[in-house]
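With this grant's support, we have paired protein sequences with backbone structure tokens. One protein thus recorded is set out beneath this paragraph:

_____
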Amino acid sequence: MFVCGSIGLTAQEQKDVSDKELSQFADAYTEAQVQGQESQQKMIAIIKEEGLEVERFQEIQEAKTNPNKESNVTDAEKEKHEIVTTKLQKLQPEMQKKAIESIESTGISIKQFESLAAKIQVDKSLQQRLQTIMEKRQGK
């Protein structure tokens, strides 16, 4: 009985997303993208600091995780890869914290952001409304 009621509520909630909520989501999404780009630049800098190119780092990573992938990784490259991986793992909590802060700086909680993202992902009309908001902002 409770499950059926919650399914109906979820469907109703999807229809009840206001333009204000979608606008806040658009702000948060934009902030998250900016933060993601900044984080990506930091990661690239760490990879290059250790003397690897991003493409080579990715090749080594793939070879490490895919046993069927043939690899010509040198011992020096393996060592550099391990150093980079360790640095990136240490950076991860900071990047995650900044991403959450950038989302919440728009007036929406991370829980609301994730909830709206899930609703938008499955609801074509919400996707279209969000796209319209985003396009209007890009036109400014």
User: Anything to note?
Assistant: Residues 1-14 have pLDDT under 50 and may be disordered. The radius of gyration is 21 Å. Helices lie at 2-15, 19-49, 54-65, 75-104, 110-122, 124-139. Residues 97 and 103 are 10 Å apart (CA to CA).
